[in-house]
Each structure stands twice: as structure tokens, then as C-alpha cells.
Amino acid sequence: MSRQPLKVMLVEDHEVVREGLRMVLESTGDITVVAEASTASEAVANAAKARPDVIVMDVRLLEGNGIEATREIRSLVPRSRVLMLTSFQDDEALFASIMAGAVGYLLKRVRSQELISAIRAVAGGQSLLDPAVTERVLEQVRRGPALGRDEKLARLTAREEQILSLVAAGKTNGQIAREIYLSEKTVKNHVSTILAKLEVARRTEATAYLVRHTVQTV
Predict the structure, then answer these.
(1) Among 56, 128, 133, 179, which has the minimal tally of Cβ within 10 Å of its Cβ?
(2) 37 neighbors 52 (Cβ within 8 angstroms)
(3) Cis peptide before 146 (omega within 30 of 0)
(4) 3-class DSSP state of 178
(5) Are 15 and 31 within 8 A, CB to CB?
(6) Measured between alpha carbons, how far is 67 from 89 in angstroms, rounded to an integer?
């Protein structure tokens, strides 16, 4: 039995860019673009109608913004996975996107094949950050001291701090397990404990919380 193609919606206010993205995605054979939008309000309305598997969302739109649209879409169509695509390396937009419910954040300089792989990955349940974004996240974490500065982060054990840093790097439970020589089940249990201690529901929210509370001022 043939697999159903992934349903993708494109939210981009530049028509030429949107058309280029559609051509790239539909050339794969396993991805179909079921809806498009150029404004935040169109994105919310079209997502509710089309119910796509993945939404490729520009952060900055001429009318409204992708972060607010993401927040509304996640409340209306929680199964849709939102992948933010932006031209700007903007930490505030990154953190806001994560808190709004986005599961990935890529820069527009990403190669076509990397974007296709990212869409497939988030459709399969993974969370993704652009490597350049991930490096800044990790750099801010490494610049600590400071997990102890925040009350909730101070609740974590040394092992939990290590695992949270690896989660922030975008690693899966299996990858973390291999890196620190634990079973995947043990890592999963640690991640659940970390989420509970930080009082968040998702790995992406834990990453945002970690970065927000370990940023160093110059």
C-alpha cells in the first residue's frame, strides 16, 4: 500500500519565494502543498481548513507575524507541526517561536534538501533547530555558571543538567543515550523529570527555558 503524501502549508508573503518553495517540495513525490497564505490571518484560516501535517511559516509577514499565527494555529489544529523559516538570526524570535508551539526553526539560507529533510523530520515527531541557531543556544548554555541562578534550573541534578543541554542541542533520546552511555528508557525518564521540574510540557519549551535563564549580559 502506498504511503499518503505529507500535507504541507506554506506561509510566506513573497509570492515568488512561495512558488519556489512549492516547486521544490512537490518535486519530491511524497510531499504535497495543500494550502498557502501570505498573511497571519490567512494562515490561521487556511490551516483550520486544510489541516496540514506541517506548516512552513515565515516569522515576519507584511500583515501580522508568524509567531502569533503559530500560537493560534496550535490551539485550533494541534496536530499540525509548525516549522519556522526566517532570514534573520533573532534569538528573541527563536524563543518566542518555541513558546508559541513551533517545533523547528530554520534560516532561509538552508539548502533545499535540508528543508525537505526537516519537513519529514518534524512530521515524524522530531524537533529541529538550524545548526547556527543550535550553536548559539549551546554557547549561551556553556557560558554559564549558572544553572543555579534560576530556581527551577537549580532543581536539576548534574545528570539532568547534562541531558537538558543535549536536548537543547536537538538530540533525540536515542542519540543522548548513546552519547552518555545510558539506556534510552533511562534517558526518557530523565527527560520527563526535567520537564516536570521546569514545569513545562515539551522539550522545545525546556530548551527555551534553559536559554532564557542562562543568557549572560555583557
Answers:
(1) 179
(2) no
(3) yes
(4) helix
(5) no
(6) 15
